[in-house]
């Protein structure tokens, strides 16, 4: 395929903070890196589309991108501020998508955001917070010109699929932690530190589900071409992303149930041990009550009491105490209280 003539002064992607890549594609092939200020002209060429990747860009850089594609000011404001809920909004012939991202950072789940602007001839991705670079997605798609020839819609699918795959990777890592907690419950009581781990895991799983869940509606609308004119051959791909999201939700729900059962089992185990301890204490208290009562009676120091002058009285009392205590011990032992 012949390479189109370059635009005047188009010297490729400049090195500037926040700009990861700005590339133009045609027929599934990478044409070249471009400057932001020439993106509009490249996007208007038939059969071409521009893919711009940004990471926590400055407002000035976003304003330049906005000027190139006439992006809606409200969508730009959302992309600047981040901390948006997952959603899909349509602005004329373009759509704005917010997706939450997740990855493990220092053995904890960290969440970020990706904002996607998609319109005829362009896709712009804006990453905030914890998010893996989409360079991997770009390289994978560039290695398959046939699928990349579908244009910006296939790039959108690739990014959403990558985000959902990252959910699954995080869920699998949390699964290993949940299995460890479950095994520990079966061998010993949960410590305070274990309980804190259970709480953190349940919180992370809930946040992960809240991040993944809204993508079902986003992909459904894309699958049915409610907001973008997606060719029929592309629609099953967004259905596949929806299926992956539901698999993630199912995995998360399962892990949350396992943690709930583990916590309940630990509580029941502690209650059982407490009941056993209480029974033992009650049994020993009943046994010790016998000599205490008899000694208390004979310790009242009254002058006229039975058997005070009997020379065998002491031994009889001791024998009685031993017999009664021994009988109670045997009864409690037979009842497994001791």
Would you spell out the secondary-structure blueprint of this structure?
Blueprint: E1 19-26, E2 29-33, H1 39-44, E3 48-55, H2 59-69, H3 73-81, E4 87-91, E5 94-105, E6 108-119, E7 122-129, H4 135-142, H5 145-148, H6 152-187, H7 192-212, H8 214-223, H9 235-298, H10 313-334
Helix pairs in contact: 2-3, 6-7, 6-9, 7-9, 8-9, 9-10
What does this structure look like?
This protein is an alpha+beta fold. Helix content is 57%, strand content 17%. It contains ten helices and seven strands. It has helices at 39-44, 59-69, 73-81, 135-142, 145-148, 152-187, 192-212, 214-223, 235-298, 313-334; strands at 19-26, 29-33, 48-55, 87-91, 94-105, 108-119, 122-129. Strands 2-1-3-7-6-5-4 form a seven-stranded mixed β-sheet, sandwiched between helices. Helix 2 (59-69) runs antiparallel to helix 3 (73-81). The protein is rod-shaped. It starts with 18 loop residues before the first strand and ends with a helix.
Shape: rod-shaped
Which class best fits the helix and strand makeup?
A: alpha+beta
Work out the strand percent: 15-25%
Radius of gyration: 36 Å
**Termini distance?**
89 Å
For the secondary structure, the number of strands is 7
* Mean of residue pLDDT values: 83
Unreliably modeled segments = 1-14
Give the count of helical stretches.
10
Helix and strand run: EEHEHHEEEEHHHHHHH
How would you sum up the major sheet? Answer: 7 strands, mixed
Task: Give a short summary of the structure.
The chain has 338 residues and is α+β, with helices and mostly antiparallel strands. The protein contains ten helices and seven strands. The model is unreliable at 1-14 (pLDDT under 50).
């Amino acid at each position: 395929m012949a390479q189109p003539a370059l635009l005047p002064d188009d010297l490729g992607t400049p090195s500037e903070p926040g700009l990861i890549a700005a590339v133009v594609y045609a027929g599934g092939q990478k044409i070249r890196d471009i400057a932001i200020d020439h993106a509009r002209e490249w996007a208007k060429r038939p059969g071409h589309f521009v893919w711009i990747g940004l990471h926590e860009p400055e407002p000035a850089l976003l304003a330049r991108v906005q000027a190139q594609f006439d992006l809606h000011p409200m969508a730009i404001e959302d992309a600047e501020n981040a901390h948006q809920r997952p959603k899909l909004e349509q602005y004329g012939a373009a759509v704005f998508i917010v997706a939450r991202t997740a990855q493990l950072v220092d053995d904890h789940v960290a969440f970020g955001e990706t904002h996607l602007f998609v319109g005829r001839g362009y896709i712009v991705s804006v990453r905030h917070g914890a998010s893996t670079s989409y360079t991997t997605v770009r390289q994978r798609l560039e290695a398959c010109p046939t699928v990349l020839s579908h244009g910006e819609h296939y790039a959108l699918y690739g990014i959403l699929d990558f985000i959902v795959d990252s959910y699954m990777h995080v869920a699998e890592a949390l699964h290993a932690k949940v299995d460890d907690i479950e095994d520990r419950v079966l061998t010993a009581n949960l410590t305070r530190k274990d309980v804190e781990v259970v709480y953190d895991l349940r919180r992370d799983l809930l946040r992960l589900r809240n991040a993944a869940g809204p993508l079902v509606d986003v992909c459904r609308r894309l699958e049915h071409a409610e907001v973008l004119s997606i060719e029929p051959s592309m629609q099953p791909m967004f259905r596949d992303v929806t299926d992956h999201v539901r698999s993630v939700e199912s995995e998360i729900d399962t892990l949350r149930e396992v943690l709930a059962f583990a916590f309940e089992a630990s509580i029941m185990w502690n209650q059982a041990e407490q009941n056993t301890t209480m029974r033992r204490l009650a049994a020993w208290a009943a046994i010790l009550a016998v000599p205490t009562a008899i000694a208390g009676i004979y310790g009242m120091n009254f002058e006229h009491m039975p058997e005070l002058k009997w020379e065998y009285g002491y031994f009889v009392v001791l024998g009685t105490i031993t017999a009664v205590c021994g009988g109670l011990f045997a009864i409690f032992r037979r009842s497994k209280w001791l």
